[in-house]
Amino acid sequence: MSALLIVSFNLKNPEKMQQYATAVAPLLAEHKAELVVKGEALLLSGSSQYGMRTVISFESRDSALAWYKSDAYQRLIPIRDQAIDAQFTLIG
Q: CA-CA distances (angstroms) from residue 30 to 34, 69, 72, 84?
């Protein structure tokens, strides 16, 4: 069963975001993940502290967790945290 990773975020540092995006793309490809959509979120109900969303599709929950827990991705987290304030949610 496929799984979706929803990243809700606010941009803090565009330069660091570019660095993170450049480094994370090949890691996603290695794990056969696909970017579904990225952009400003239009909140229709409720409240959220995040204005942007990214949705990434993985083949399975296990493959998403393997990507997130991989040493290569873990090394990118300090750059990610400089680039954005974020919440990662895995569904599936």
A: 10, 14, 11, 23
* Percent residues over pLDDT 70 in the chain: 100
CB-based contact 9:54 (threshold 8 Å): yes
3-91 folds as Alpha-Beta Plaits (3.30.70)
pTM for this structure? 0.92
